[in-house]
Amino acid sequence: MNKVIIGIGSNIEADKNIQKMLQILQQKVTVLKVSPMIRTKPIGITDQPDYTNGAVKIETELGRSDLNNMLKAIEDDLGRDRSGPKFGPRCIDLDIVVWNGEIVDQDYYTRDFIRSSVRAIDEGSSPK
Predict the structure, then answer these.
(1) Catalytic hit among 15, 47, 77, 80
(2) What is the pLDDT of residue 7?
């Protein structure tokens, strides 16, 4: 079993989309813990609503590539528009941050909200 921490972000109907995403995710993997959500200012393009960010710790038999594909499918199901600018508004953004105790998303090192969300659900073990 793989233990994974997924970063969550949304600034379009965030509360609704995050709840919907968690419901879908729970049907596909074992959800172990969800961090508190944090409001953050947008990065890059600042003329957009604030983001709601957090993280979810899961357990899955899926490999990393298959899990990533599943997360992209969930984003698509919730209406994610990939045609806009990289740092533009989004209904949901899901990224694998920690894979079996190893940090695999470099944004962990540059974005405080990712680190604090990961720490909130990964107490007792420090990612490498």
Answers:
(1) 80
(2) 97
If you search the block for the tokens 């233990």, which residue do you land on? 3
Instruction: Say whether 90 is catalytic.
Output: yes
Q: Is 76 a catalytic residue?
A: no
81 as an active site residue: the answer is: no
E strand or H helix that includes residue 8:
strand 2-10
Phi, psi at 90, each rounded to 5° = -150, 145
Active-site residue 115, yes or no?
no
| Average pLDDT per block of 10 residues along the chain, 128 residues long | 97 96 97 96 90 97 97 94 82 96 95 94 63
Query: What pLDDT does residue 57 have?
Result: 98
**Residue whose C-alpha is closest to residue 6's, from 20, 25, 27:** 25
